[in-house]
Amino acid sequence: MADLESNAQSAPEGNTEHQGSCAPANGKHNDCEADASGIKLFVPEGVRYNCQGCGRCCSGWSVGMTEEDYGRIKDIDWQSLHPELAGKELFFHREEEFKAGLAGHPHYTKPRADGSCPFLINKLCFIHGHLGEDQKPVTCRLFPYSFVETPSGVYTGVVYNSMAAAKNQGDLLTDQKDALLDYLALTRKYATALNKTAAAMEVKDKPKSLETGAQVDAPVESNVPFQTVELTLGTVVTWEEFLEVDNKLMDLMLNRKDLNIFQVLPAGSEILQKAIRLKRAGSPMTELRDFDPVVASDADMTPGAVEEMTLRTMFYRFFIYPMIRVDEKGLWQMQRRNILNPVNAFMVARSFSRYTFSALGAILFKHAKVPGAGNMNLEAAAKKHFEPLSKELDDYFKRWLYLKLFAKTYFGPAAAGFGVVSGYNCLMASIIAVMIFAKCCATSRKEKALNIDDIYEAYWRLDRELLTMGQVSKQESVAFNFAFATPRLFHKMLFELQQGFKGGS
Ligand code: SF4
Questions:
Q1: What's the pLDDT at 326?
Q2: How many whole angstroms from 139 Cα to the centroid of ligand 1?
Q3: Among residues of the chain, what percentage have pLDDT more than 90?
């Protein structure tokens, strides 16, 4: 374990010819060699994962199941197999919402009062133990891997809602390519199964004929995403042009060891702004190769109220809202038709007042009940003077950012259709929010240095919420994309936070 723990500190090694285990000769993603099956799989450097059996990823949410998953699990008499399962409701159903396109799956596991999966017994999955690993819901089998299909190939990553991933424990992903290809095949099969379920239920999104009102087939679109990429609202580039931007970002992450996280983040923003200017001027994106991202600094670096409130909104979304959600399971486990029942209507009203009250408290009044820290003044915690960030922590933040950028999960289809700038700003908000979370935890213990265990905990919580944000409705996605599209949105907050890491009282 000591050996594994030491890996938690490793940052990706520098590599001018970037691109994980699929490194091309000339630094371009799309020149990567395909394997025997014709798949180009890009795997990030320095990223480790193997399940360590802590059981933590089996709590905090309900596991979504396809009809196929549910079909093979529902008929087992679980109640008689273990006393912990006896007399328990193990599933709930959202078929109506799934049909309407409002839920990701038709069936879910029903968590216990503490938010853990009902099948988690002594930190082990009872379905796995009783039926075998391949009988678990596919969501569980694929977790925590991500696979993003692009015109260049498939980009792999892991999410930190697994503690082993957050701690960078296990073998390097670059040494697990065969296993990753198996998971990729399963991911593709799973997407097909989910679409089949949707088709069988005549699900959603089919446009209606203006003449008859009947549902008609939507026009056929390319099934390879990212034919084009929205850099920001109204500025769209080809995938080839985006690769120039991506290579520049990867170069920043892998080769600029002289920059700390407070310098890397704004430098990434400058690269995006330069790319937008090039596109709008009709200049070739290759000009980005010679661009040196010098970070602009305003004379006044005091954050404005809008910037602060947007950041606190994200803090609420990442850390406060999920705690209430676990307490209010009745609300999201209810099918829409049940809302007219007076008891349920009362529950809905009570839940929404709770959400609203806590949101206003955090966003407007800067106070929140932070997990692991209790009631905190968020502004005071953010401004509190702390010891400078250690290299270990600086590397940790940079590795998370590198992984997100590499895996292509921060924009486009994997991120509810965010543009690149909005997705990048969301990553910046995430890092600031994690630092505030860890400052709250340390402050509650009267400490003045960030603690790596608080950072693990923060990322474990945050990455789950980034995943759920990727599944929001189209309307919510448009609103988020718009709200995050402002250039250099969180630079002043970042600067203020950096000033707080200079020690002193
Ligand atoms: S079904 Fe098994 S693997 Fe999936 S969340 Fe529940 S306990 Fe964990």
A1: 77
A2: 9
A3: 55
Interval between CA 350 and ligand 1 midpoint (Å): 30
Ligand 1 lined by 136 (C-beta under 6 Å): yes
Q: Find the range with the poorest average confidence among 85-99, 136-150, 366-380.
A: 85-99
pLDDT band at 210 (very low <50, low <70, confident <90, very high): very low
CA-closest candidate to residue 123, choices 49, 50, 48, 59: 59
The ligand 1 atom at the shortest distance from the C-alpha of residue 119 is 7
List, in sequence order, the alpha helices (H) in 334-451: 342-363, 378-383, 391-407, 420-444
Count the neighbouring beta carbons within 10 Å of the beta carbon of residue 351: 18
Decide: 119 in ligand 1 pocket, CB within 6 A. Answer: yes
Determine the pLDDT at residue 95.
Answer: 86
Question: Is 58 touching ligand 1 by the criterion CB < 6 Å?
Answer: yes
Check if 160 has its Cβ closer than 6 Å to any atom of ligand 1: no
Identify whether the C-beta of residue 46 lies closer than 8 Å to the C-beta of residue 403: no
Counting Cα atoms < 13 Å in the Cβ hemisphere of 399 gives: 28
111 touches ligand 1 (CB under 6 Å) = no
